[in-house]
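Q: Sequence in, structure out?
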Amino acid sequence: MIVAALPAFNEEKTIAKVIIGAFRQVDKVLVVDDGSTDATAEIAEKLGAVVVKHERNFGKGEALRSMFNWARMNHPRILVTLDADGQHLPEDIPKVLKPVIQGRTDICIGSRFVDDASSEMPRYRKWGARVIGGVTRSVSSLPIRDTESGFRAYSEKALSVLTPSEMGMGAEAGLLLQASEKCLAVEEVPISVAYKGLRGPRQNPVYHALDVLGTVFKYISIRHPLLFYGVPGLIALAIGLELGWHAFTIYSLYKAFPTNLGIVAVGATLAGLLLLSIGIMLFTIVTVIRQRS
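A: Exactly. Output:
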């Protein structure tokens, strides 16, 4: 069984077209109604989709979590996710499914940035997506250009080992970071994406970017605490000691202690020691947890 899953929040104007198109490509359609106040759920049910309802709007991450939970209970062969607002074209579903069906990959991403992709993406969003993608790619070591695309196909194996852990827009980046950690194969294929005529993003683009980057940095801080905290700690400690040496040199020469320089030196030294301590403690905790799991 191949299932198309749509996260939806107040998409009554577009969801019917997406569901009808998806039914032509897959066996079943799942709609996660994330607290809609319009007729989104009713339309989906009348068209034959399975509907999971949230009491209120929790965000993209919680919608993905509901999709994965449903998949674990119903065991589809492949789960393909796409947006309900019409920007993802259901007729591209076979492109995204093909590498997973052939067994070449565990996750296939419909990309807006690979060769032959067609996208009406506004320039500011394209620039932001590339910056976020560069950060996520450098951390995950996955050669994926479009790390923010929600048009994805997940194999049964991927569905069994991945768990959306973020509430907000960083959920999809978080899944890629998990996929890298669990050594899953990830591939991307070109798709066409429509933006003209659609309403703009509900979330402020700056907040969206910070949300995703926060997910990436949180991942680094948990998985690599010595790197995340230890390196800045060593730098701050070195700066503090260097400034402290200069402060005492000035005092020995002129018998006048440079108060401002001394305060900065002490502050940098304490900050460095604090960061190093946090890094070591978290590294110890993470190591113990990994050994017991």
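The CA atoms of residues 16 and 43 lie 7 Å apart.
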